[in-house]
Amino acid sequence: MDILLSILALVGFIALTVGTGFFVAIEFALTGLERSSIENHVANKGDTRARNIQKAHNDLSFELSGAQLGITITTLATGYLAEPVLAQFFDPVLELFGLSDAAARPIALILAMVAATLLSMVYGELVPKNMAITDPLTAARITVGPVRIFNKIFKWFINSLNSTANWLVRKMGIEPADELASARSAQELGALVRNSAKHGGLDQSKAVMLDRSLKFGEATAEEFMTPRSTIEDLDVDDTVEDLLNLALATGHSRFPVTDGDLDATVGVVHVKEAFAVPRENRAKTSLRTLARPIPVVPASLDGDAVLNAVRSAGSQVVLVADEYGGTAGIVTIEDVVEEILGEVYDEHDDAEAERDYVQNGANWDVSGLVRVDDLPEKTGYFAPDGPYETLGGLIMATLGRIPRAGDIALLPQTERDSMDEFESGITGRWLARVTVMDERRVDRVYLTPITNEEAGQYA
């Protein structure tokens, strides 16, 4: 009779451990599944299990509470059944070591409790957890049926526990949620894209485009506009002939039309409008009559809103205003495309001369207009925070004056934070040599990494 009871107790221990595993698996499976993957599974399978997974995910708070209750009940019952049975195996062993029956019994119970806990933890919790994390959909399909039956039986008790917990949570100023948010932030999606590219799951060029697209919504008009100092514009008193000449010289097709300077922009003109004017009238037709209104957006406007403004503008050009009301630059459809796809060149562009970054071994030939927060990804140099946004501005701040071609500046060193794509620590020293100036603007810079010993010569 004792042997039969021991066998039944061991069978019960195994069954309860399996039950614990079911509750643990459904808990991790439901929290690891995305709503979109569940909807796709329902659309493809359409069976009872798929619909039960969807129902469980939609009522996540209740299902997780039921899983917690199930884990608690099965774990307690496992210990209650297993400890006396396992203790019977430890008693003879302890007596062989010379322990009396009175001393061996409590020690055997302690050892049995430890063994039962370890077995339950490994086979009832850790193994199902790892399986559910690895393949949550399969784990959910296996476990959802029995777990939902258990939850229906104990529905009243689970709801009462949930209500008590929600009341306490609300007292802490937190509103409980019945389901997980399936949306991911742009930063999380960007990290996923970079990680996929790093491990070969995504083509590098596609990963770059996806990463740029995700970052685009967080960028501002100021970050990808054509800055004021590089804008080619025409005056309202200029003629159609002047428009054609400037188009031939620059290769551009659209130009702001100003009344004195860019702060008094009256509109924008397209070169195709010149061909609607008879040849004999082009030298005497002013652009005042051809200029179309140009929308104005603030420099702080986010990328998505700027894209909508550019697309809505008939001229595909918008003017960017700074916080003081002055003109900071313009954004064209080409600027928007390049922010997502990278540099785009047509037959009028000098692709080599207009490239922002040209690598030469460990050195870089860089445009003075590149933003300092783009430098780490390309060159590895981290610029400190300061009253500048571009590499040219950083060099001006370092020199304390307007640079001249040939000037050399030792760029300031900065401690950088730990990032996914960079190791933490102190950056190397960098030397910047101004190679080309455009009046008072730094046009091209040659960056060279140097050692700390070499940096001492320029300090």
TrEMBL record:
PANTHER family registered for this protein in UniProt: UPF0053 PROTEIN RV1842C, UPF0053 PROTEIN YRKA
Q: What InterPro entries does the database record attribute to this sequence?
A: CBS_dom (IPR000644), CBS_dom_sf (IPR046342), CNNM (IPR002550), FAD-bd_PCMH-like_sf (IPR036318), FAD-bd_PCMH_sub2 (IPR016169), Ion_transp-like_CBS (IPR044751), Transptr-assoc_dom (IPR005170), UPF0053_domain (IPR051676)
Q: How does it sit in the membrane?
A: Multi-pass membrane protein
**What's the protein here called?**
HlyC/CorC family transporter
Signal peptide residues on this chain, from the entry's feature table? none
Q: What is any one of the record's Gene Ontology cellular component terms?
A: plasma membrane
* SMART domains linked to this entry: CorC_HlyC
Q: Which family does it belong to?
A: Belongs to the UPF0053 family.
Q: What Gene3D superfamilies has UniProt attached to this entry? A: 3.30.465.10, CBS-domain
* Species assigned in the record: Corynebacterium meridianum
Where in or outside the cell it occurs: the entry states: Cell membrane
What keywords sit in the KW lines?
Answer: CBS domain, Cell membrane, Membrane, Repeat, Transmembrane, Transmembrane helix
Entry's Gene Ontology molecular function annotations: flavin adenine dinucleotide binding
Say where the protein is mainly found.
Answer: membrane
Q: Which CDD domains match?
A: CBS_pair_CorC_HlyC_assoc
> Domain CBS spans what residues?
225-284, 290-347
